[in-house]
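thoughts on these tokens:
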Amino acid sequence: MNTDRSSLHLEGIPADKLITLQGYLEPFQLSLEKLQEVSHRLRRDMTRGLGKHSHHNAPVKMLPTFVRATPDGTEKGDFLALDLGGTHFRVLHVRVVEEEQKVLKMDSQICTIPKEMMLGPGQQLFDHIAACLGDFISSRNLKGQTLPLGFTFSFPCEQKEIDKSILIRWTKGFKCSGVEGEDVVKLLKEAIQRRGDYEIGTVAMVNDTVGTMMSCGYRDQSCEIGMIIGTGTNACYMEEMKNVKRVEGEDGRMCINTEWGGFGDDGSLKDIQTMFDVMVDEASVNPGVHIFEKMISGMYLGEIVRLLLVKLTEDNFLFSGQASETLLMPGSFETKFISEIEEEEHSLENVEHILTKLGLKWDEVDARVVRVCCDTISSRSARLCAAALAAITNRIRNNRKLDHLKTTVGVDGTVYKKHPNFSEELQATVRLLAPACHITFMVSEDGSGKGAAMVTAVAQRLARQSRLLEDSEGEDEEEEEEDENN
């Protein structure tokens, strides 16, 4: 066995079984050299995604966000935030307090999106969102104020401006008609106008990774990367404008939403995809799309483990060859089971409880094997994520021609926050893959909501500074004219 976490939990498994088990697990165990190769491939794809002509066919979309700066600590004011990224969405009232360098969540409300609405007409969805936003404004006595809105919309979009964002495709089980190819800000504004009982101010469109980076960036001004590892996975970072060929301008930086979940959609990860990854992809609602995400994110990890356990049972290696009806049901092995199984303190108890719940007849060796399977698959996820993050940090360092980069990554997502070993393994692996980068990790609290408000606040600060600059230039010109006339 290699030195992955899984090798730490092998006691109690007979030697002959261990050798056989290794044959099943080996495809999941990626060497440091292989991870470096994966990291290099992603860096190559990032360059393709940024290119003026190559981005059309690039699997890693590298979408410009039109977020031109991270917080500088002078932002302030009251904002609304909308956070839509799954079966629930949140409405928030956020206050940014300059004196305390704090982003305060004043109040929030969670609204559900019924399953049929996720698959119905887009107008119905946006009317529902506008209704929930209206209820919130009314119940919090915010009517009559026209507050700016940060809109976190966690689906692949092509942003045209800070307030114009075209949905490329639905993911995460959504399939609303009439939205793909449309500007989601416009659809939201139209739904609010149809109601006619409240108004909102300027809208800033934010991806959840950008929100995560910005919410952490107010507390730590060296935060220039946002990363999500939850139901799905994605990352953003501050890129030099001169490399963003699809947007005019050479000066400064712009935040790029990598959409790294699509890495491998062109077949570039075929050599590390296992038969189980292929099965998960083929059974998904979007086969052939978001290959990298399907290897590492919370929506799929439990299913990879389930398919591996089914195979081990079919081959008479587990549970005396007897699978339960529950184990044979897709989705029955939840990703949260992996976290519960890997909790050090009650590890075997938790495995045994879960196996019983799945209707399986097990012995202690079975329980230990299941633990090693979970370890192996979550370990691969953390290591692949580290390879992707190393691609970004190494790119930033090279962009800036630095011998050493010191940066902070804002992180959100249940896999990173809830799994007992994931964050530790990711951090240890990224140190090996990006040795010249000193990376601090900061967990984002309410990242999507507070971050959306933060993007709006930064956009307002930049607009304010731009106006002041124009005014002062105008005054200078007037003075020059006066001098000439005199």
